[in-house]
Design a protein that fits this description.
Length: 209
């Protein structure tokens, strides 16, 4: 039985967007050794939901830092969303979408998480609408009608909330975070962005314990 690497992320976390290529590289290199599970963290939920305009100035600076550190680019369409400022920052719809993919096409979940982050931060899709996620669900092998049907079911909202609770129970306070479960023990190997080399080094160190 494989050990498990848990990736705690949020679709609206820009540092997770920058970390996505790192996690992709790790999963491709270690897919035979570990099971990879992606967990939605619920960064913008409850009273943390707010219009983009409320933190627009902070976000502009943060995105410059993300690009400088990780190399990912923020697209012109997304920057228009940022300037407009009216869209609500709400992590729930993307988490529900991920829950559907995890249920129907679990092996595609990590790829789906990365693809919708690029869709949000580069293409500027509306992350609050189920229809926005359809092209990426289809790439994961889920037909549009089935995806929309499942998205509307209360069960998948509950699955998203279960992810949020799992992140909280793990004591995750920031995203991205990566936890290795090895022989019934848990090791936090990343909290915040890490380049691939540092993440791999942390993984190898944890494996020695």
């Amino acid at each position: 039985m494989k050990d498990t690497i848990f990736y705690f992320y949020d679709a609206l976390c820009s540092w997770c967007y920058g970390f996505s290529p790192v996690l992709k590289k790790l999963s491709e290199k270690y897919e035979d050794e570990f099971d990879f599970q992606v967990i939605s963290g619920g960064m913008q939920t409850g009273d943390r939901k707010q219009p983009v305009s409320d933190i627009r100035d902070y976000l502009k600076g943060a995105y410059l830092n993300v690009t400088a550190r990780t190399g990912v680019q923020f697209g012109a369409d997304f920057m228009e969303v940022l300037e407009d400022g009216t869209r609500l920052l709400d992590s729930v719809p993307a988490a529900v979408a991920l829950s559907v993919v995890k249920e129907l096409k679990p092996m595609e979940a990590l790829k789906f998480a990365g693809s919708i982050q690029k869709a949000i931060y580069y293409d500027g899709i509306n992350w609050n609408k189920a229809e926005s996620f359809i092209p990426y669900a289809e790439k994961a092998g889920i037909e549009a009608d089935l995806f929309l049907e499942k998205f509307q079911e209360d069960a998948f909202l509950e699955k998203a909330k279960t992810d949020f609770k799992l992140a909280a129970n793990f004591g995750i306070t920031g995203f991205p975070s990566v936890v290795l479960k090895r022989k019934e023990k848990y090791y936090l190997i990343a909290q915040g962005f890490l380049p691939f080399e540092q993440l791999e080094e942390a993984l190898q160190t944890a494996k020695l314990n």
